[in-house]
Amino acid sequence: MLAEASRVHVGDTEASVLTLVQRYGGFRRTPEPLLPKEQWIDKEEFDYQQNRLTDYNYEISVNPFGIAGPGRFAQVKRAVIAAVPTPLRPALGMRDWGTAVELSIRGNRVRAVSAMALFAGSSKWFGHSWGLAEGMPHYGMPARAYLIGAAILSMGKGGGEMIENYLTPEASQEQVEAAHQFNTGCLTSIKGCNGLCDVAPHALQYLAQHPDADWNIIPPKCPSAR
Fold first, then answer.
1. What is the per-residue pLDDT across 164-177, written as a single tens digit (0 to 9) for each?
2. Model's pTM, two decimal places?
3. In terms of Cα–Cα distance, which of 86, 93, 116, 88 is closest to 180?
4. 28 in helix, strand or coil?
5. CB of 110 within 8 A of CB of 10?
6. Burial of 57 by CB count in 10 Å (0-12 exposed, 13-18 middle, 19+ buried)?
7. 64 DSSP assignment
8. What is the dihedral of CA 47, 49, 51, 54, to 10 degrees?
9. Which of 20, 33, 119, 169 is the most interior residue, by most CB within 10 Å?
10. What are the CA-CA distances from residue 95 to residues 87, 187, 198 (Å)?
11. Is 148 in contact with 176 (CB distance < 8 Å)?
12. Cα–Cα–Cα angle for 81, 85, 87, rounded to 5 degrees
């Protein structure tokens, strides 16, 4: 699903992405309207977000247990998983993870596409995300083709950290590959990944070589990125 989403471009027709949405049981959701402009402290940010509004979004997700949907079978699987002690789950092929893709549509064209993967690591949760749009998600961000950031995760059973990648259509092939690639072994490893260096070595190596791609991240010292 993530690989298919990475081949979607800004400006693609809505019809061209419907197969992807249908294959993974996606659904359409209308985004919440913005608060009135007078309630915004930063009026320029309001204008920026107003221009980014979409008609609707398609949301799709995949997880290893197929427990997103309702029904008796899903309830049984949840109970089975909950009964297994957390430290034993990876050894039984039950490492917890989830992936999601959002396709934003405006005027029957793709306005933006984003993807995210969350997974339990050896000691805490980790995540990897990327988003492609005409501009950066906030007005105050540098107008660059590619930026790399980080965020704190607040999960139901503990916190963690996530690396974030922001792209525009002007990004080079090198930047696109750095943004999309992450260590998928984090989803299946018995030991589990430990730190952002394990999660996203390509993006952090790019950041070490191009410090101007930094956005709200304190880069860890990765052996491969020195």
1. 999 999 999 999 99
2. 0.85
3. 116
4. strand
5. yes
6. buried
7. S
8. -150
9. 119
10. 9, 7, 16
11. no
12. 115
